[in-house]
Each structure stands twice: as structure tokens, then as C-alpha cells.
Amino acid sequence: AGAADMMGTRAPWLAFTGEHDAVDARSTVVFAHAPENDRAIHASHWFVRSEPAPSVAFSWAFFEEFTLEPGESCGYRYRLLIADGAWDRDRIEGRLAALDW
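The chain above was modelled as a monomer; its predicted structure follows.
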């Protein structure tokens, strides 16, 4: 799926793969939600763009704002995985499943 397809979606992870022209190689960058983020105070969605430059952000207020009352807090954890080569879905999911969060 392209960046426009992922904008505003909820998914456990998102990845960009890129080709490096000067060295004829590829790499993959994976952005992953920690498992406990599914139980967080508010759902997180992906904010994704591929133009003019690739960018990814975790958006807790993508569709609607939410309020934290005085004294309340929220926390989310993420992992960034940088891989040599163009990793496919199976390889990404296998690596993420093996992580000790």
C-alpha cells in the first residue's frame, strides 16, 4: 500500500522500503506500536506522507481530539527498526514477534 492508503489507518506497524541509487541497495524502516498501545487511553493512527519526502508520525488525535484532565497522563511506546534490504511483510512480522517489548 502507498502512503496515501495508510494515512489515518490503525495498524500494528508501518514500513517504508527505499532504493539507494548510488550503491544499488535497498533498506527498510519499520515503525511499530508496542503491544500495550492497543489498551491506551486513546487510539493512535498513522500520519503518513511520501511527498515531498517520506515522513511518519504517530497521531493520537488524527480524527478527534481528546482531553487529559489535570493529573491524568498517557503513554505510548514505539519501536523503530532499520533493516538492510527490502523486507517483506512476513519477515517484518516475524522479527517484530520475536522482540521482547
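Strands lie at 13-20, 25-33, 45-49, 55-59, 78-84.
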